[in-house]
Every structure is written in structure tokens, then in C-alpha cells.
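Take a record:
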Amino acid sequence: MWKTILRRVLIMIPELIVLSILVFLLAKAMPGDPFSGSINPKTSPAQLHRLMAANGLFDPWYVQYWHWVVNLFHGKLGMSYEYQMPVINLIKQRGLNTLWLATFTMILTYAISLPLGIFAGKHEGKWQDTIIRVFTYITMSVPFFVVLVIGIWIFGYALGWFPTSGSISPNANGMGETILSRLGHIILPGLLGALFGTVNIVQYLRSQVIDAKHSAFVKTAVAKGVPEKDIYRHHIFRNSLLPIAAFAGYSITGLLAGSLFTEMIFSYPGMGQLFLNAVNYRDYTVITTLVLLYGFLNLMGTLISDIVLSIVDPRIRIE
């Protein structure tokens, strides 16, 4: 398996090179520039021309791309035009916030969806199953941003239980207060994101549990007198996890990329909000870096999903 993983990693290199060229060209093809209106509305065209020339924006695209790649290998991703700070430092700050939110959301998602999916499949056709299916249908039919707006209005403004913006309170002092403040800021968006993210997992898992219940190996185990809890633990649950494991890598890397809706509605300074702001302000250095990072995360998601799938079912080996 290690040879396969190494081969897949090597294949990623030309894919990332092609992706970087496409991303760089598309970013340069965007209308506008990063300086007009962002420094001073009264800035003269001559001053804007000097700024763009000093930043190499008039060089041929391949020259700009070559300079960008050389700096990339030296750990220099350039300066953000809008935030006036190194892109690497900007991504570190926002990436840490997204990591907190993504980890919390992922834990809640699987903590909620796995028991619900198994419980619904175990009680197929009964009132317990009906309640869970109604919950999934309602959640699926309501747009995610509507759920976020309603949640922030009820629990943030009306009840005042949770903060409605930011990632940490400015009054937090010390490590303990900082951690508690971070948790307080991610509970509401993480919980809403987890409730919305459970829908597909619950439905997949419920279907797999129902299929496994009627399979021949389960019927054989029942005929042999194996206790029901052992049947669900060792036979049904393990086999039902296969489709869930197939999407695990994509779910992890997708959350790390940041949720655009969640971060914008909650004014949460993460990767998703950073990307939208970079597009609005034509911050080319940030755009190219983030899209390349997202592409890398997607490739890693594919690899992680295959590895997790082979761990869950040893009969499956990635080739």
C-alpha cells in the first residue's frame, strides 16, 4: 500500500503544476486591478501605473508566473495587496481559525449522524425511523444559508446565548480564556453546520444498515444465536461504514477549505471569508495561493478516502 501512496503522491505533482498555471492565468484574466479605489479614490492614473509597474503586473504572464513559482519554492507567497502582509502569515492566521471550526464541525457531524443512521436503520418503518427521515427531509429542503440566518437570529440575537461574529473575544486573556472564547465562537456555527452535514450520512448509513440486515451473513448469524448487539457491532455496522468512509477524506478537506456561507454570515475570519474578500479586492496573490491550496486539498481528499476505505474493509486494497 505504501508504494501505491507514493505513486499517487508523485502523480499529484504534474496535476498541481497544470492547476497552478490555469489558476494563475484565470486570476490575471479577472477584470480590474488590486489598486484602483483601495488606496485613495483620488489616486491619479499615473500613480496607479507606477504601482502596477513596481509590482510587475505589466510583465508577460509567463514572467510573472516564473517569479511566483520561484518565490513559492522559497516559501514566499508574496504580499497581500489588501491586507498589506505576507500571504503565508495571512493563511496561517485564517487557517488556524478554520481548523478549529472544521474540527469541531466534523466531530459533531459524525457524533450525530452515525447513531441516527444506525438507529433509523435498526427501527426501519417504525415511528423512530419516521421522525429521523422527516428531520433529514426538512433539513435537505431548507437552504443552508437560511438555516444559518435563522440560527444566528434566534440563538445569537434573540436569546444572546452565543457570539455572532469573530473568532475570539478581544477581552480574552491567558490560554484558558482564549480557548474558552474560541469554543464559544464556534459552537453555534459548528452545530448548525453539523446538523446540515448529517443529512447525507444519515441517509447513506440508514440504507446500508437496512441492506445489511437482510443479507445472508446476518441471517446466518441470527440463526446461530449471536446476540443482536454483537450482530450490529461486528457485522452490520462495519459493512455499513464503507460508503461513509469513501467520503471521509472529501469531508475533512472540504471543511478545511472553509465554509463560505458560515464564515460570511458569522463574520468568522477563516479561509472561506478570506477567499471571497480576495476575489472582491482583486488580491491576486491570495487568490492564486488559496485556489492552489484548495486543489491540493481535493487531491489529498481522494487519497485519504482510499486509505480510510482500505482500513475499514481490509478486503479492499487501493491499487
